[in-house]
Design goal:
The chain has about 425 residues and is of the alpha/beta class. It folds into 2 domains: about 260 residues, Vaccinia Virus protein VP39 (Rossmann fold), CATH 3.40.50.150; about 120 residues, no CATH class. The protein is about 40% helix and about 10% strand. The protein is globular and about 65 Å long.
Length: about 425
């Protein structure tokens, strides 16, 4: 999969000079013309928590690799790195433990197909939405695989019926582009249009909305609006992707490039085949990625929990917020990240790069400061890996998340490594 040394920048001094001139806060961003390729913000179409900004992977991919290179994100989430690589004519690979994130990335990738007529897809779906009728009980015709009993308490009855209509519409649709667009918009709307309005933590903790919170949030019109923005944005974005884009997409169209798997056990790509790894690993005790997606999991037919009766994603999740009350939480996080590091490093080609984006913690009393440092030191101590440089990113205050435990987090560390680097 790797093109060898021609796929990456061999001159480390040149790479360091270019990266040192970057304003890693990316705020405000540079003014670009309508014809210039911009980072694609996959976060705009799904509320997925604790994602990192697309400008980081976009910049690293553009500076450190050449078209045709293989770029891998082992904690890919909703595909922030994946779609920068694809847009820049690199071959993307992504893995994630969260089935909802993988489903989203797969469907968004389908809509990146140059054969997709996005306006035609939108027009067709809007015609189908006109078939919805108030007063019809659509729940009686929904597949038994969808966990309707678990979903119903989160919505007003009108919204619940609209979701049941959408579930049927998606299941019966045989057009792969329309189906992909519906799956993206439905998954996003299940959270954004539920009546629990106190943040993703309440969904993760299975806190049903109280009776006084239940309200009609117009789910069908919300899905329609999301589809309009999604399909228009992809159409505009691909118009700037360049002539080589069609060739890159054709090379991956029939290949699996997105994997629902534990990164520690990922064996589907050969060792030393990746030119660049760009990822933001889970922060310790910060986010419940799987449980936060429980509403979409119900739609996919899976309950969320730690029991063997439920899906296995929570059991293998690294750094989950729910573990913060356990005294062994940080030790378990380190052990899991060391295993992940071992497998991730094995995928990097000779001369290839690896970049981790992790929090920069100011509080010396916070044990997680040392934990994060150990994760990075573990990479540096592995055979053939050298730390090239660290870049500090100041998080603009208006972009910080206020519903997380790390309320004092205002910087991130972007750590760059290289395999077999002698400089």
């Amino acid at each position: 999969m790797s093109n060898g040394s021609e796929s990456v920048v061999d001159d480390v001094k040149q790479a360091k000079a270019a990266l040192s001139n970057i304003d890693w806060s990316f705020h405000p961003g540079p003014a670009l013309s309508e014809t210039e390729l911009k980072p694609f913000n996959a976060r705009k179409y799904h509320w997925y928590p604790a994602t990192f900004v697309p400008e980081i992977p976009f910049t690293l991919i553009e500076i450190l690799t050449s078209p045709g290179a293989t770029v891998y994100d082992p904690f890919s989430g909703i595909g922030t790195t994946y779609f920068q690589a694809l847009s820049l004519n690199r071959k993307p690979i992504g893995t994630d433990i969260c089935k909802v994130a993988v489903d989203y990335t797969e469907n968004l990738s389908t809509l990146f197909d140059p054969d997709c007529d996005h306006q035609k897809v939108l027009h067709s779906l809007e015609e189908k939405f006109d078939e919805y009728s108030d007063g019809v009980d659509y729940s009686t015709e929904v597949s038994d695989e969808i966990l309707l009993d678990e979903l119903r308490p989160w919505y007003s009855e009108p919204d619940f019926q609209k979701f049941c209509f959408l579930f049927q519409l998606e299941a019966a649709n045989e057009n792969r582009f329309e189906k992909a667009a519906l799956r993206i918009a439905i998954s996003d709307a299940l959270k954004s249009h539920c009546s629990q309005n106190r943040g993703w933590g309440c969904v993760a903790d299975n806190m049903h909305p109280k009776e006084e919170q239940i309200m009609d949030k117009r789910a069908l019109s919300g899905v329609s609006s999301k589809l309009q923005v999604l399909l228009r944005d992809i159409d505009d974005h691909l118009a700037t992707a360049g002539d080589y884009y069609d060739e890159i997409y054709s090379s991956i169209r029939d290949s699996q490039t997105i994997f629902h798997t534990d990164v520690r056990e990922f064996t589907d790509i050969v060792d030393e085949s990746v030119d660049l790894v760009v990822t933001s690993p889970p922060y310790p005790e910060m986010t419940d990625y799987v449980a936060a997606q429980r509403l979409s999991y119900y739609w996919l037919g899976e309950k969320v929990g730690l029991s063997d009766r439920f899906n296995n994603d929570m059991n293998t999740e690294i750094g989950a917020r729910r573990k913060r009350s356990r005294g062994s939480s940080n030790r378990e996080y380190l052990e899991m990240m060391y295993e992940a590091n071992e497998n991730i490093v094995s995928k990097v080609a000779e001369g290839g790069y690896l970049c981790y984006v992790l929090p920069e913690i100011d509080d010396d009393e916070d044990e997680r400061k040392e934990i994060v440092s150990k994760v990075l030191t573990d990479i540096e101590n592995r055979n053939e890996m050298s730390r090239i440089e660290d870049y500090m990113r100041v998080i603009p205050s208006n972009r910080r998340s206020h519903n997380i435990k790390w309320t004092s987090l205002n910087q991130e560390r972007i750590s760059l490594f290289r395999k077999n680097d002698e400089s």
